[in-house]
Amino acid sequence: MRSAETANLFRGRACALGAVLFWGVSFVAAKAALRELPPGLLVWVRCTLGAGVFTLAALLRGSELRIPRDQRLYLAVLGVMGIPFHLMIQSVGLLTVSASATAWILAVSPALVALLGWAFLGERLGAKGAGGIALAMTGVFLVAGGGKGPLGYTLGDGLVLLSALNWAAFCVASRRGLKVLSPAQMGWAIMVLGWIASFPLLALPGCDLTVLARLSPAGWGAALFLGVGCSGLAYALWYDALLVLPVAQAGAFQYLQPLVAVLTGWFLLGETPTWPLLAGGGAILAGVSILSRSGRH
């Protein structure tokens, strides 16, 4: 019995680590794909491949693939927020922001979740939690603009920060649905409805499907990695991890995500880490860690 529990824990941790590794490399892959694909078309490809892989994984696991009638509007709004809108503003931001800086800025999402929970749900924050949020946001200001200070900030930095805020709002809004739906069922519904909502992106300038026929092998590799790996397999692995791990323990693996992005961005894109970037990243991780230990994460 003990060995079975140990095996389940090992499997859960392996799944969480696998998902985080995919997501850490996703920023580098997106930078590579955006060299050949416009943001709108890249997001549609990610949504299409991700929804297909996630559906296949759900079928293999015997999950219930049904969207309750009374939850459809709610899940559709979450689908737009969490999939095409989130990926679109993030992709446009990545046109001018490094993969490393993007990963660090998005790592502040847990702090923003706590802030929104305090502002709109009446959740207690406390002095320790507020201090953690302040430290994390200080790190964001160091990271944004490539560590060059206010004069270096760009529209891309603002869009990446907006995507972090949007993800935080998505997480807070998801709490109601998780009271009546399983995480796997809710995740599948959001993924499929988000894919449907991504089709208008094909009407944007330059988002003709014929562009896909001109992709280089490297472009196809990056797009497939993002769609199949990051938007499909990674989410399936994450929900598998949540079946056996407490949310806090699974979430701890996400501290590795920006570190993976920094290393892969350095080796694959030549994005040399700067001291302001590392200092800001350290402040973000420290602030989020303080917040999670305060019990308000």
UniProtKB/TrEMBL annotation:
Residue intervals of the EamA domain: 14-143, 155-292
Xref: InterPro entries: AA-Vitamin_Transporters, EamA_dom, EmrE-like
Annotated TM spans: 40-60, 72-89, 101-122, 129-147, 153-174, 186-206, 218-238, 250-269, 275-292
Short name of any one Pfam family annotated for the protein: EamA
Compartments where found: Membrane
Membrane topology: Multi-pass membrane protein
Domain of life: Bacteria
Gene Ontology CC annotation, any one: membrane
Family listed: Belongs to the EamA transporter family.
Protein name from the UniProt record: EamA domain-containing protein
Organism taxonomic ancestry: Bacteria, Thermotogati, Synergistota, Synergistia, Synergistales
